[in-house]
Structure prediction request, 828 residues.
Amino acid sequence: MAEALNPSLTRRDAARLLGAAAAVAALPSGWTARRADVDALLRKLTLAEKVSLLHGANDPASKGEAGYVPGVPRLGIPEIRLADGPAGVRVTAGATALPAPVALASTFAADLAQRFGAVIGREGRALGMDVLLSPMTNIVRVPQAGRNFETLGEDPLLAAALVVGEIRGIQGEGLIATVKHYAANNFENARQTVDVKVDERTLREIYLPAFEAAVKAGVGAVMAAYNHVNGVYAAENRHLLSEILRDDWQFGGWVMSDWYATHSGAPSLTAGMDMEMPFGVNYGGLAAAVTSGQLAESVVDAAVRRVLVQLDRFGLLGGGRPRPAPDPAGGARVAKEIALAGAVLLRNEGDLLPLGRADLADLAVIGPTAASPLVGGGGSARVIPAGAESPLTALRRQAGPGSRIHWATGVDLEGVPVPASALSLQRAQQGGAPQAAAQVDHTGAGALPAGSSWTWTGTLTAPATGDYDLRIQGAGGVPSFNGSISLTLDGVRIGSVGALIGGNSSLIATSGGLTNAGTTVRLEAGVAKPVTVAATGIAGTPLQVRLAWVTPQRRQEALREAAALAKGARAALVFAFNEGTEGADRAALALPKGQDPVVEAVAGANARTAVVLNTGDPVLIPWVRNVRSILQMWYPGQEGADATATLLLGGANPGGKLPVTFPVRAEDAPTAPAERYPGVGGVADYSEGVLVGYRFYDAKGVEPLFPFGHGLSYTRFQYGDLSVRAAGGGLSVSFTVANTGRRAGVEVPQVYLGPPAGPPVPMAPRALAGFARVRLSPGERRRVTVTVPRRALQYWSDGRWTLAGGRRTVHVGSSSRDLRLRQEVTVR
Ligand code: BGC
Prediction:
């Protein structure tokens, strides 16, 4: 509060600082930030020093983090290290790979979000970071968007509740959180250029509430998105950055751009974008703009002050605070707890799950992700853990003696080294003379020397015409944004191991632990294609490189093997996956890599088939009625295998709920028309308005495959005795939930609110207005009260929130389509 009395501050500055001060109060007790005199510090900084605090630079002692801002050591302003991200701290050192945030969203539990955040907060501090580039809270709008796994679902109320928990967790450990990507960054294709056309009401009601909640929870930083919003880049959008964020919400922290998302210097700064990342391509020129009179130094000062206020608030000025030791065991515990809690039982006909003793005595397990775990999604949210067990190993371990569990891949992602008969190659070590080479197959004991660099050139000739999956597999490459072990066919780079974005690198390693990149190409029998493999190794680690393929014949064989294994077994368990990643949306909603025919063949061979999904978002499930059970595990993090086996064997009971709608067909999705997604002429028209996710399906009467909020349990729940009363400007909704089954379980009762008759604006038939998460023993009955905030009764119109008064229906249920109780209330 002391700053508010400083006469040099404008009223608006004072209001912003008060916002920051209020947010400090949100930090846990016992955590006291130092309160330096930020304005005195600002007066001591030279113009060049001020500007150096407003953009990133190369880290002279990089820990593998995404961003770095040098400090001003002579004044005790520390260097700042900023690391991704949403599923764990992404630096060179090993960190806890938490489940993907979509799994967290499925818990519907703000307290779990806080614990999730606390793991990252502590670990980030322990690993030398000051700022975390998380949470991500862009609403899931497009079912196939690449980063859906990284965010918190399709409902603004749910995302807001979770983001608040997560920020409390992160910042409670002293790490500054960055809520991203502000705003309307809802898909990946053309994300850097697309212009999102969205009306103000839709922004305020759907795309902004989670950001607003983050600001109210005291988030230290906001990341501006790549895309345009209504014709203006998000990173220089005055309406978003100044009018909404600062003036309406009183945000007291600073705004940084997404990486390379800044497009101007002075105009961006003046619009409210404080810090250009990762380098000062534009902001490097700010000092010159000031000296030439194009930019007032007070604008620079305001931005620097916002940064310093947060550094001060988090105790980073003047020597900083001691860093905690890492706590990998604590991280692993939370990772498992959230993998368990976020699992969603989508279907369980005849209670096939949990598997019984007899099933385990003769179980066929199918699928590559059963043997090579799919820990997390791709891109900047990818965290490589120190280790991760495979589900197959965990199942065998938990099933114990007397069990017989066999595995077949069903879908071969790995293949075999391309045989010498199909290759005509020469290889050369950097600086050396070319020599003939039969194959590219240097793994294990046959690895190439650490730090060496090689090129193989020649031709590849297929023995028969067909679709070949060409793979470049490797390890020990030098870290590089584009990858350092690559495969080029016919002049086109088709695979690159270790590329952060692009490169066709799979999230699923080979059985030998190699990164596996590549794609499917059509090859004609006897036609020689030019091929190049290049590999550059890192010092200290042997360089492994393999050029492999999956032939059309092998694909058929793998399918037949899986079906044969399933036929002879008592029960079959298929692991199916998709690979969500930053930088690209999925080309289709269907499962990739020919998995559908494999599931169908297995289900055809064994009537007791269950499927485990490792997907980051909705997929089409044409075989839904052919299988008895489907357990959605998402990308479950480093402890995912243990959690998966525990749930399958009944050691824990699934209680997660879908935070996203699964459509029956791609054309059912709200964003199916091209003008909505990916857009036409560079413009994506959000013309579905507030009808995002389940709101759209409900409004249009389209039956989803699995609705928002859906999730079964190994037990049953009964609802009754609804009563609704006005409370605190909103509603207090009470009802009874009883566990009528024989197992303990978790239920997430959801409260939905209907519109008044003749609504003032088009409204969804039902919108989530509150929820709870209750754990009940068999036979236990509990009275649950859910508070519906006033905001849930309002809509945005003419620049303000307005009550949608009148008779409205309150629904309570187990999903958005399994509504058990209803009551009409008069809202005023
Ligand atoms: C992503 C951000 C990320 C940043 C730094 C960008 O490509 O969009 O989410 O924080 O890179 O890695």
